[in-house]
Design brief:
By secondary structure, the chain is mainly α. Helix content is about 70%, strand content about 0%. The chain has helices at about 15-50, 55-95.
């Protein structure tokens, strides 16, 4: 797929379509949470600047929500990292066993004398 950042990884290793969809879905989730965080931060700043006691009290809940969102983003990135590592490991196992890579060449390296 042209323009697909996951189409070719490393030495001709390719991720399957399902894996790419999973990555894209998780990146969309992360972006949605980050967009929500931007709104929370803006509201927190407005409440802080207003110096109104009720608004300042509301910030406690908003900051808790922000912290929770940050934890969710960290968890999503962790899951993405683990999934990506597993997919690369599985792909490279096929290459190291002499399987043909996407370019049609075997995955073995020759040792050169010397």
């Amino acid at each position: 797929m042209e323009g697909d950042p996951f189409a070719g990884i490393g030495n001709g290793t390719h991720l399957d379509g399902k894996m790419v969809q999973t990555f894209q879905k998780n990146f969309v989730k992360v972006q949605d949470i980050l967009d929500q965080n931007r709104l929370l931060i803006n509201e927190i700043n407005q409440n802080h600047d207003s110096k109104i006691p009720d608004n300042l009290g509301r910030n406690v809940g908003l900051i808790r929500e922000l912290n929770s969102n940050i934890r969710r983003v960290v968890d999503l990135y962790s899951d993405l990292s683990n999934s990506f590592t597993k997919s690369i490991d599985v792909s490279s196992e096929g290459d190291s066993n002499g399987a043909l890579k996407s370019d049609g060449k075997a995955g073995h390296k020759r040792n050169r004398p010397g």
